[in-house]
Amino acid sequence: MLASAAIAYACGPRGHASESPARRPKQSAEGLAAALAVTVKDEVQLALKVTNSDPKRVELRFPNGQTHDFVVLDTAGREIWKWSESRLFTQSMQSRVLERDETATFAASWDPGDRHGTYVAIVSLRSDNHPLEKSVRFDIP
Prior knowledge:
The chain is mostly beta strands and 141 residues long. It has one domain (25-140): Intracellular proteinase inhibitor BsuPI (Immunoglobulin-like, Sandwich). It contains one helix and nine strands. The protein has one helix at residues 2-11, and strands at 32-40, 44-52, 58-62, 68-73, 79-82, 94-98, 103-110, 117-125, 132-140. The strands form three sheets. Strands 5-4-8-9 form a four-stranded antiparallel β-sheet, with no helix packed on it.
């Protein structure tokens, strides 16, 4: 058990920047408008709002129960927090239909403890047919 912990520590968390640019989701998906909001209080509140800006309904298809993910990176690009870490997701496909001008909100909160400084929040919509990614820089005073 101790050996596996040492290996995990030595390998460290995979940096988000190591993903190849070709595999990264787009900043916005066709027919969708997306915005990431970060509010810093006692906890850091993160919210992705995805709005169907297309005149037709849009179906978001997900390969499993994970619809989104939030990651917080420090200024060196190291992963500080990941919303999906230690969570379990169903393995069944799902979908969500957004009517014209309808908005879906995906939210999470992170307790930074006594961390201060500048960070980057990244959210990804895990949709097979409309993947997207947004990022925002924020400060914890």
